[in-house]
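User: Run a structure prediction on this.
Assistant: Running it now.
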Amino acid sequence: MIVIGLMFLTCFYIIILYKKHRYILDKLPKSRESIKYLYKNFRNDANKREIIKVYLPAIVSLLVLVLLALLMNVRFTYMLMLLFVQLAIVPLIIHWHFINHKNIREYRNLCLYLSQLILIFKSNHKILSSLEEMENTMDPFINSQIEKMITAIKDGASNQAALSMMSDIYPHFILHNLHALLVNVERYGSDNYYYALNLIQDDIDDWLEDLELYYDMKAKLLRKVNILIGFAYLISFIAIRMLFSVSMDMNDHLYQQAIFTFAIIEIFTFVIAQSLLKDDFISASEVI
C-alpha cells in the first residue's frame, strides 16, 4: 500500500509539473528541420561547449542516480519511480539552460547596440544615418530589428515610433532614456547633449558590469548546490556502508522509503536551484 501511495504521489507530481510547464512541449523540436533550426546558431566551438554544458549535467545526473540506487540496494520499483521523476524534469532543466544562454547573449548584444548607437550618433547627429551605419554589424536578431526601424522611418514613421520597436522588445529604462534623448536632440537640437550621452554610457557600463557579476554569482551558486548534493549522497552512502556492517536488512520497507524520500528531496533541491536560470535579465524594477 505504501508503494502504491508513493507511486500515486509521484504521478500527481508529474501531472502538476506538466500543467505548470506544458509550454515546454511547444518549444521542443517537432521535426528534423526544427532540430536543425534550433541548433543553427551552435556551430562554432564556443557554442558547442555551451550545448555540452546544457546536456551533460542532465545525462550525468541520470547515470549518478542509477549508480547510487544500485549501490544503496534500492528496489526496482523505487528506482523506476526515481527515474520517472528525473526524466520528467530533464526537458525543464534543458529549457531553463537555453533560456539562460539566450539571456546572456541578448543582454551583451543589447549593451553593444546601445554603445554603438551613442558612439555613431555623436558623429552624424541623425538617427536614420546612425541606424544605417550600424546595419549588418550586430547580432542577427538585433540586425533584423534595425532593418525594421530603418524601413519604418523611410516609410514615413516618426523616429520615436521606429525606435519604439526596439524599446517594446527590451523595455529597459536605459534604452528608453537613450531613444528619448536622441529623438529630442534631432527634433529640437542641443549644444550640450554630449554630456547626457556620456551619462547614459556610464549607466550602460554599470548595468553590464552588474549583469556579468549577477550571472557569474548565479553560476557559482548552482555549482555550490550541486557540490552539496554530491556531498549529501556521499555522506548517505558512507552511513549505509556502516549499516551494512551491522547486518541491517536492506529490504526493510522503512529503509527503502527513507532512501526514496532522500533521493526525491535531493532531486527537488536540484530543480529549485536550476529554476534560477529562467530569470529574465531585465528585472521588473527596470521596466518602463
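The mean pLDDT is 78.
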